[in-house]
């Protein structure tokens, strides 16, 4: 694939990981491509990181035609670099595009753009265990016209951010608040699309949860405010005595790639994983009665993180996770695969050529 590469005249010094927060720094270059109706995708290139110029009428600013992805490149034990399951991100991006009336992006363009960009920015991939180079692909409508319809033109971009471990074993487990007066999405909406519309409207509720002393929100379904769905922007798992349960891909939650990886890991190890609805009342009764051994979250940033408390209707339900923590075991298994210190039996890692 012919990709034009323009090198920045001046390179920045990579920051120390103790100076970095999630998304606070970007690398020197970004990958770009444009779409025009009748012409398709064109002009793929890597160029110095910089700002976009948008007409005030750009449709994304008015009607929210915007999707994004998130994935990580990891430093390997031999010094090389590999991406974790990028083909799954490419497929999910296009599923989001379909839901938001946006053109599909060829998977080969997605993967090759990532590879060429990361190969150029190899110095930005941290060597710290658990740290990574986070890739944020985005696509948005940029046709300058007012009217609720499909845009005729789109911008695609990939930017790179070095990120520290978002969560590590030993960090305090999380406290969650479940509320009945708000909802993240509804059946028939766009809850399973990674679009900006799903996230901006959650900020007020999230701020309220944190003001009340919780780390995040445990979202309930919009119809009955009874069934748990996601935690913030992560998937949730509940471990009972001999099985693990997670909400199904009902169209209301995001099909997390880490979620799928955890399910495949657990089943390969003989664990029973059920994908079914979990009622909040039953979950809290299980916590109070000791049947719930563990609750943990999964996501690209989080990887796997344990929970220690859920608040609901003014009452707190604390519990002590099982000493043989499945969350810790899964975190270590996944990060070992990602950093190349364990055998990649699933073929999840895509090596970046030097």
Summarize the structure in short:
By secondary structure, the protein is an alpha+beta fold. It is built from eight helices and 18 strands. The chain has two domains: 162 residues, D-amino Acid Aminotransferase, Chain A, domain 1 (2-Layer Sandwich), CATH 3.30.470.10; 165 residues, D-amino Acid Aminotransferase, Chain A, domain 2.
CATH-assigned fold name of the largest domain: D-amino Acid Aminotransferase, Chain A, domain 2
Mean pLDDT, to the nearest integer, reads 93
- Spatial extent as radius of gyration: 21 Å
The CATH superfamily of the largest domain appears as D-amino Acid Aminotransferase, subunit A, domain 2
Q: What is the oligomeric state here?
A: single chain
**Total E-strand runs:** 18
- How many independent structural domains? 2
Main sheet summary: 9 strands, mixed
Please give the alpha-carbon distance between the first and last residues: 17 Å
Number of helices: 8
Describe this entry's structure for a reader.
With 354 residues, the chain is α+β, with helices and mostly antiparallel strands. The protein has two domains: 4-165, D-amino Acid Aminotransferase, Chain A, domain 1; 174-338, D-amino Acid Aminotransferase, Chain A, domain 2. Helix content is 23%, strand content 29%. Strands 1, 2, 3, 4, 5, 6, 7, 8 and 18 form a nine-stranded mixed β-sheet that branches. Strands 9, 10, 11, 12, 13, 14, 15, 16 and 17 form a nine-stranded mixed β-sheet that branches. It starts with a strand and ends with a strand. The model has no long low-confidence stretch (mean pLDDT 93).
């Amino acid at each position: 694939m012919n990709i034009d590469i323009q090198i920045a005249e001046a390179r920045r010094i990579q920051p120390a990981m103790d100076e970095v927060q999630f998304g606070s720094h970007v690398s020197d270059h970004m990958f770009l491509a444009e779409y025009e109706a009748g012409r398709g995708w064109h002009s793929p290139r890597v160029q110095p990181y910089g700002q976009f110029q948008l007409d005030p009428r750009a449709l994304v600013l008015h009607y929210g035609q915007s999707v994004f992805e998130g994935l990580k490149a990891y430093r390997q034990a031999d010094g090389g670099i590999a991406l974790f399951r990028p083909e799954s991100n490419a497929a999910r991006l296009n599923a989001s595009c379909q839901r938001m009336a946006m053109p599909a992006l060829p998977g080969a363009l997605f993967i090759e753009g990532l590879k060429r960009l990361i190969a150029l920015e190899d110095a930005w991939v941290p060597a710290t265990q658990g740290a990574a180079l986070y890739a944020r692909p985005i696509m948005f409508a940029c046709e300058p016209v007012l009217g609720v319809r499909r845009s005729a033109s789109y911008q695609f971009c990939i930017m790179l951010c070095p990120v520290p471990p978002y969560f590590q074993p030993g960090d305090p487990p999380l406290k969650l608040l479940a509320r009945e007066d708000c909802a993240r999405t509804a059946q028939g909406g766009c809850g399973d699309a990674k679009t900006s519309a799903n996230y901006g409207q959650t900020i007020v509720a999230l701020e309220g949860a944190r003001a009340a002393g919780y780390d995040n929100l445990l979202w309930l379904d919009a119809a009955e405010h009874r069934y748990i769905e996601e935690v913030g922007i992560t998937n949730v798992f509940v471990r009972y005595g001999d099985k693990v349960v997670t909400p199904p891909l009902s169209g209301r939650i995001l099909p997390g790639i880490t979620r799928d990886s955890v399910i495949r890991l657990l089943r390969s190890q003989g664990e029973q994983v059920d994908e079914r609805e979990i009622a909040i009342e039953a979950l809290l009764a299980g916590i109070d009665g000791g049947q719930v051994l563990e609750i943990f979250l999964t996501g690209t940033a989080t990887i796997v993180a344990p929970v220690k408390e859920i608040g609901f209707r003014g009452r707190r339900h604390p519990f002590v996770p099982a000493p043989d923590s499945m969350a810790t075991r899964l975190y270590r298994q996944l990060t070992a695969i990602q950093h190349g210190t364990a055998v990649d039996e699933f073929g999840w890692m895509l090596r970046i050529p030097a």
